[in-house]
UniProtKB/TrEMBL annotation, chain A:
This is Trimethylamine---corrinoid protein Co-methyltransferase. Belongs to the trimethylamine methyltransferase family. The keyword Cell division does not apply. It holds the Pfam family MTTB. It comes from Desulfosporosinus lacus DSM 15449.
UniProtKB/TrEMBL annotation, chain B:
It comes from Desulfosporosinus lacus DSM 15449. Belongs to the methylamine corrinoid protein family. CDD domains: corrinoid_protein_B12-BD (cd02070). Keywords: Cobalt, Metal-binding, Methyltransferase, Transferase. This is 5-methyltetrahydrofolate--homocysteine methyltransferase. The lineage of its organism: Bacteria, Bacillati, Bacillota, Clostridia, Eubacteriales. One of its GO terms (molecular function) is cobalt ion binding. InterPro entries: Cbl-bd_cap (IPR003759), Cobalamin-bd (IPR006158), Cobalamin-bd_sf (IPR036724), Corrinoid_p (IPR012741), Met_Synthase/Corrinoid (IPR050554), Meth_synthase_dom (IPR036594).
Amino acid sequence: MGVGSSHGNGLFFRTLTEKQAEEIHLASCQVLEDTGMVIHHEEAVELLRQAGAHVENGNRVYFPSFLVKQALQSAPSRVTLYNRKGEAALHLEGANVYFGTGSDTLNYLDPFTLERRSWRQEDVANAIRLCDKLPNIDFVMSMGLLSDVDPRMINREQYAIMVQNTEKPQVVIAEDGDTLLDIIEMAACAVGGKERLRQKPLFMIYTEPTSPLQHPKESIEKLLIAAENGVPANFACGGVAGASVPTTIAGALVQANAEALSGLIIHQLKAPGAPFIYGYGNSPLDMRTMQAVYGTPEAVLFQGGAVDLAHYYQLPSWGYAGCSNSKVCDEQAIAESTMFTMMGALQGCNIMHDVFYMEFGITGSLELLVISNEVIGRTRRLLKGINTDKESLGVESIMRVGPGGNFLGDDHTAKHFRDNWFPDLSDFNNYENWTANGSKTMIERARDQIKQVLETHQPKPVTEEVKAQIGEILRKAKEKVGEKA
Amino acid sequence: MSDFTSLAELVINGNYNGAKDLTQKMIDNGNDPLEIINQGLMAGMNVVGVRFKAGDMYVPEVMMSAKAMSTGIELLKPLIADKDMPTAGKVVIGTVKGDLHDIGKKLVVMMMESAGFEIIDLGVDIDPAAFVKAVKEHSPQAIGLSALLTTTMLSMKDTIEALKEEGLRDSVKVVIGGAPISQSFADEIGADGYAADAASATELCRRIIA
Ligand code: B12
């Protein structure tokens, strides 16, 4: 059977030509070599110096282009994330696409009281439990900042909640190296030891430069710990076009790519072959409101460019989907998030986060999460494209039914109609039945679904032993941060 | 059109080369330096402020105008006694300890400078002691603290406490901002003001310094 594109026989979308990808690559290499970066981490600077980079003033590092080539050579083209059971869950390669939530929103849009308020531990636990149930949410991030724990413990407590409320893989934010080490410990407990975690990573760490062209100490610390422990990592610029990266899409790509490659180089020097996920984001500064806004057409195109570069480099790709600038889960929220989700999928971005983000990452909405779950379902069906094997062409069925007949009674329909997409939330009733069901809008149905899941769904718990070990790690950490203060 | 009107126009259009040349020409023609500032450069900037507020001009255009104004002022500064130099006030600003977010803070700095404030920007990751030191060194009327992280917000309170300990709290106003900050947090830690964006930060400082 003929294969139409990178999604097997399904739909696929390319943003850059091969030539454009090369132009951006060369421009980034020029930035790396001529402008360089400031790296606030002695070991990393030393690694780079020994590898042949030019260093000035102790921390200004200029990267010769051969270092880029060398790093691309050793970095793996595919990375797999495993679930808590140890089963391969996310195959980050080719044009596979996976979706998950975002981290650390400040406010929770409570779907029951409709308040906008701070997150508490039970809210995050509920939100993660909901993700555990939603079939199209493939991984989780921490979703909410905890207002009811010691601020220095937030990332660790978030991890403890995530790992105990879902078996799905996670993407983790950690304040510093110590926090990451504790998270590695907790994950190791959950999967049966550090060696097993290294072999079958349950989470990846999201770390980043501070654009423009600076690498904070903590970011590099995390990157090196990840490399050493085989924890998959990215080094993803969170660009704000017009402020921390250029306002043109191409310029933003050049700089973000240079920053990601610089992270890759350090990472691969520390541990050649360690798993790295390539990618970055761009929330352009809106020049009227001065907000870093998500999912503008330029941001979507930017992601297309980033993913094409990932394909050009043969690295797994990281990006965004399902997020919005709206303050409530309204028409704008659905328009923005749906466009990003669908385009990200067509671009073939391997791992997309921030599904459920509202208000440019300040607020999170479970309604948006549940509606996005449905949108992703539709999108996944699109990606499968049109099957044209003999059975699907259905010539025999057309012959059987013939002029004036009806396919409803034919075997071919009975055999294949379930291959098609079915809605979970979208309403396909006629008007009378819709009113009979309470005339509910989609967001009301989403709230019903949230309520129903939270009342009934219990994720598979960790064993009592694991629970106790995690409790112990948290207790020790509390002592540690207490001592530091 | 008088030279003053033309100069104001050049500022409004963000033509900094033009503004520089015309300021020089006006100096050479013997115009009063303070008048050049007030009736030319500042007059233009005031229009920019109004247009920005009305949504007719965007931030990058305001920045170009501010650049035009300051190229002119640079030429005039040596001709004016320090005490006569018009300023809206002196403000020390920085992103607090542990926090590296500075895009919003830089915007506040740029907007305030274009509104005539003298700003001392300490940068990012600034601990309470460094703020205290800067207050002693520069004697500003206000300090601005920026934080984007829930974990680093706490450092704002520490900074206020440190100012108290040094007996400096009464001599300087404290204004705070950043995405997780709110008026109620400002009240809680005893700050003098909170602003949600760069434009209102400027107004806030005008109000509390006056
Ligand atoms: C860009 C960005 C980054 C960039 C910063 C680059 C830079 N050079 O600044 C990078 C990628 C480096 C980054 C890193 C991190 N970030 Co960040 N980041 C953002 C993002 C997307 C936009 C911030 C921004 O620049 N906005 C645009 C500017 C113009 O707006 P603003 O900063 O709010 O400033 C305005 C007002 O607040 C006010 N204002 C600001 N300062 C002041 C000061 C005074 C005195 C006054 C009066 C007013 C005022 O006026 C400004 C202009 O209008 C926000 C999400 C968001 N939408 O806010 C997350 C966000 C702030 N980041 C977040 C997090 C968690 C992090 C990291 C911890 C993540 C990580 N992976 O490690 C690190 C922390 C690094 C560190 N130690 O600081 C969280 C914070 C949650 C919290 N409250 O704790 C947010 C909310 C995103 C999220 N939900 O996860 N980030």
